[in-house]
Every structure is written in C-alpha cells, then in structure tokens.
Amino acid sequence: MANTQVSASAPDVAPARSRKEKPRRQNLAGWMFVGPVIFGVLAFQIVPVIASLGVSMTNWTGLNEPDFLGLGNFVALFTTDARFYSTLLNTAIFTIAMVVLSIAIGLALAVLCNQRIRGVGVFRTLYYSPAITNVVAIGFVWFWLYEPNNGLINSTLRGVGITGPAWLSDPSTALIAVIIVALWQGVGYPMVILLAGLQSIDKSLLEAATVDGASNWLRFWRVTFPLLTPSIFFLTIMQFISSFQVFGIIYVMTSGGPNNATSVLIFEIYQVAFAQGRLGYASAMGWVLFLIVGLVTVFQWKMEKRWVHYDS
Question: What is the DSSP track for 212-267?
Fold first, then answer.
C-alpha cells in the first residue's frame, strides 16, 4: 500500500522540479550573454575611470613610484598653467561653433532634402558620406586644399584677385580652418536626425495651418520648428559631448599648432600623458573635462522644459 502511494506522487514531483529548473536555465543563459559585456564595462571603463581619479592625485609617470599630491595637480591647472586656459578657450570656441553651426546647417540641408524632387536620394547620400569617411583621409585631403601656394582654395581666390591666408600655419586662421573641416565632415549626422524629425511631423497640422492662411515661413516657424525641438535638443547634447572630445582631425591636420592655436583638451591630455609622461597631471585634466561635460549636460537637461515641445 505504501509503495502504491509513493509511485502515485512521483509524477507530480518531477514536473515541479522541471518548472523550477527552467527559469534557472534561462537565467544562466541570460548571464552568459550579458556577462562578457558587464566584464568589459567594468574592466575597461568603470575601473579605469575610478583608477584615474587616484592617479590624478599623484605625480605618477608610469615608471616611477608615485607620490601622493592631494589636489596639487588640480590647483596647478588653474593657478600656474596658462597653456591649460588657452586650450580650454580653444575647446570652448570649437564646441560652440560646432553645436550652433552644425545644427543650423544640418537643419537647412534637412529642409532641402525633405523636398519632393528628382534625385534627392543622391543629395542625401552626398551630404552624409563625409560622416563615414576616414578622418585621416579627410585630414590629408583638406591639408592639401589649404596649402597656401598651390592649394585649390588659395588658387581659386587668386583667380578672383584675392590673396588667401596661410590657413593652417597662421594662428589667426588655423582654428577656423579646422572648424570648417569638422563642419564639412560632421554636418551629415544632424541632417539625418532632423530629416527624420521632419518626416515624422503630422501632415494634418501643416495642412490646417495652410487652410488658416499661414505663409511658408509661418508654417515652418510656428509648426515645424517647435515639433523639431526634441530632435534639436538631442543633437545639442550629442554634438556638445562629441565636440568636447574631438581629437582625430586636430592630430592629423595641425597637431595642436601653430603656437597652441588649435590645441583642444583631449589633444592636450594625450600630449601631457604620452609625450611628456605626466600621467597624474593628464588624469587631473581628464577629470576637469569630465566635470565640465557633466555639468553642462545636466544644465541642458534642466533647461529642456523651457524650450522643447513634444507632439503629445
């Protein structure tokens, strides 16, 4: 009788165990997928960032026994390092120019590429193609274009009676020349984002404005532009962060010269860390960069409600 009871309850126990093991197997499979990513983020991002804070308070060169300096590197940055201020100013000028001009030009191109004209797909491709072109190739091509004697730009200017400047070797024009190249390369990205924003606008709103007698300019300014502000807000944050981290085009075209006229923060950190071997000082500069980007980004989020309009 007892054996009969045991054999009758066995089928109920087996499915219960199976139901418990299935979530465990699913959890294990999930951890196997996300585990390498978590390890990569910890090993190559979070741990180095935390370690760099400790290094920023030392005089470590990578080879010596580091001495603890406290906030000495940060104090030196703001009290004795005049080059740091000029680098910070160059970075601010480059960033403001890139954020304002790339979004303005990108918006104009997006409006043009949103028209129903033959071959508009070709224009979209042409405008976006510099964004996916290798930055080294772009740097060398524009370096030749800017060549003061035989470059295409100055040769064209001489053809209309204008003597062109020594674009990249003159401190007064070098940063402008680099900004032009960065704009030419980077304007395709905001154009694509804003074009997607334009095409997502409800056409009935524009038709209603037309019925009310609004001109093309009023329809753009009172209907289209407010509905594009979420895209513009996104681009403002992304362009600000990427512009503060510009490195490749500076390294290829000017290496920070002439006379530090085009040196920006990321390039200066690279020079201090690997050319001068001052890893502690470079880490302090990196944390200043991180704090600036973080504070301005938080400020942008705080200001969002004042000028960003959502369709809902």
Answer: TT--HHHHIIIIIHHHHHHHHHHHHHHHHHHHHT--HHHHHHTTT-STTTT--HHH
